[in-house]
Amino acid sequence: MTADAKTEILARIRGALADSPEVPETPRAYRKTSELSREEIVEMLEDRLVDYKANVFHETAETVAERIATQLGTSARYVIPEGFDTAFLPEDTAARRAIVDPNDGRKASALVVRELNQVDAVVTSSTVSCAQTGTIFLSGRPDEGRRAITLVPDHHICIVPLDSIVELIPEAMARVEPTAPTTMISGPSATSDIELERVEGVHGPRTLDVILLG
């Protein structure tokens, strides 16, 4: 396209839009700040997550490793993001973090989907959680990892720090980098078949364990 043709096309577009009606300003009258107490917000999130078939546990820095060990159970292999705090992990499962080959020292970011499909579980942190909708936000931070490691393994253990829980969507969005690759989780992956029977694990983990970390 020549410069003259481009100029003409843009001029025609401007001319066509010249008499268009003015777009009214979108009203923003919804709540942007919660008025609930911290305890009420946490209780609301837990209620929503349980309703969505997630398992919810309350732990502290001293008990979280034991909880993760319990939830991992007999999982042969599990993966963590490269920036995840290994102090939260049970020491006796360190060998099981050898993803595919015990002699393979590659990082989680280098694993292809075929290899991730051989991983039983993933353990991550989270950016923020919205109690109003029961939604956990992952935004690709170092302790959350790339999207694939939370979608391919069948079991996701997600740590949600209590101070990262908010009530409202506007509050949650304010904590997420606008350009980040955001994944929103509301319970384990589920859909319905043609007979409206619930089927879990179709588009992501079949089991979601949420650890509310105080």
UniProtKB/TrEMBL annotation:
**Cross-referenced Gene3D superfamilies, in alphabetical order?**
NagB/RpiA/CoA transferase-like
* Source organism superkingdom: Bacteria
Q: Which Pfam families does UniProt cross-reference here?
A: LUD_dom (PF02589)
**Matching InterPro entries, A to Z?**
FTHF_cligase-like_sf, LUD_dom, NagB/RpiA_transferase-like
- The residues covered by the LUD domain are 63-213
* PANTHER family attached to this UniProt entry: LACTATE UTILIZATION PROTEIN C (PTHR43682)
Task: From the Swiss-Prot or TrEMBL record, give the protein name.
Answer: LUD domain-containing protein
Q: What is the lineage of its organism?
A: Bacteria, Bacillati, Actinomycetota, Actinomycetes, Micrococcales
